[in-house]
Amino acid sequence: MMCKKQNGRTAVLLAALALGLLVVAPWAVVNGGAEVAEPSVPLSGLSLEGIWTTMIPTASGHASINSVVIQAQGTEGLVYTVVCKHPQCSHTLLGYFPESERLSDMLGHCVRTGAKTFELSMIWHGVKEGGPERMGIGEIIFMGVISGTLELTDADTLQFTGTISAYTPDQDANGDRLPDEGAVPMACVPGGFTFKRLPMFPSCEPTPLPPGLE
Q: Domain 37-197 carries which CATH code?
């Protein structure tokens, strides 16, 4: 009887250890096997998924709004797709590229490196409108790259630390619209800004319409 009880306890212990390994294994993969500090809040509260906004200061004294949509690739919460809309950003990259007339969206991804930390990489393009000789196809004037780290300081605040760099079309030898491996950017500046998760806004009390417009 004692052996049966011990065997039962052993089975429960092994099952618990197996479950623990399943939980820890993904962290070991993305963190190179290094120990990751236990999160202070449940992992469900540390998701990057959602819409984030930030105001980026510029030398002109006018801040530029950037809104980022982040969505998980799969259910593990390890890799995320990132799309950034930046309607106020300078299409000339603050005068570096005066021929540029519009900007593409920023596209990239981030990879979880810890319970609350991520590695981020995004790219966007400055485009000159194409004339009849190009059948309206835009011409790439520069490639911009943002890279660095993200840290969730709480469930609704995301801190970016890294660099913002720019590359010229002649640094894209194969024409894939990505900087060549090993290319040195023509400009590189440090960047650090805070994103806030977009909140739910309450509805308002409807304003009475002027007579005749009801």
A: 2.40.128.30
